[in-house]
Amino acid sequence: MAESLGPLVGAIDQGTSSTRFLVFNAETAELLSHHQVEIKQEFPREGWVEQDPMEILNSVYECVERTCEKMNELNIDITNIRAIGVTNQRETTVVWDKTTGEPLYNAIVWLDLRTQSTVERLLKRIPGKNKTFSKFKTGLPLSTYFSAVKLRWLLDNVEEIRKAVEDGRAMFGTIDSWLIWSLTGGKNGGIHCTDVTNASRTMLFNIHSLEWDPDLCKFFDIPMEILPNVRSSSEIYGLMVCFPVFESGALTGVPISGCLGDQHAALVGQMCFQDGQAKNTYGTGCFLLCNTGQKSVFSEHGLITTIAYKMGKDKPAFYALEGSVAIAGAVVRWLRDNLGIAKTSQEV
What we know:
With 348 residues, the chain is of the alpha+beta class. The protein is 25% helix and 26% strand. The chain has one domain: Nucleotidyltransferase, domain 5 (2-Layer Sandwich).
């Protein structure tokens, strides 16, 4: 007889370097079980960084399945998992075909630099080549970093994606959208949504009205019908469906009811709910976020303004200032894989 520990919560943590699934006791926040899988990064050319969206999705399946197996071994009743949250690497861009459920190109990862020429071309269309032209709408400067320019590059360079857009088959999303759509049914009724924190990293989202911005979509020439619905960070988006790969089918019917970009999730996880509280995270990159409360604060010194979280449909949005360093932990992987001066990350 499996032990019942009261309500449990599952968390899918899809990062740049790895995927994890963790199960917590909802009352005590004790971590009961988890599983982690490393994700491959591909570098087709200098400065290009891609990942296979199917590999990302399969890593989620594997982590969920292995975690459930470990819980069975520990004699913990997995039917007590009441809700699942998703947190994800931000800005990484996926376009897929809603009729086949297949990606139309590899995911372009947030630190990819191929869009430099796209940014330069777009800058020519802005009076005075002002990189901060959309700062007060989006909180972001025009940069290779954000999803809109990655999506623009895909539309300009991948014939299959252009055709899918013309045929009304294309869907765009960041990793959270790709996972939620796939996990809630995919081509058989999957929910195409994102949350405000991930939307605020695209350069297409007005962080004040909390809606996709028609003028920005027009500027980037991106069709609004391919964009996901924007929801709060805490509400039920849809229910997990049974997949052939889930041998146990353990989580079928469990609601996916939380979604935050990884750095916002870390801010929430560190309980930085007061104006002025900040957290710093060392992952693939290094990110400092400072909660600025219900007001958006704009920096004169290169910090970006972002939505920190919105804890429910009818709850207000909270904002943060963010400082980003693209390469932190990634340099450890580089020392291991490229220079070969360490066999494992632990040695460093």
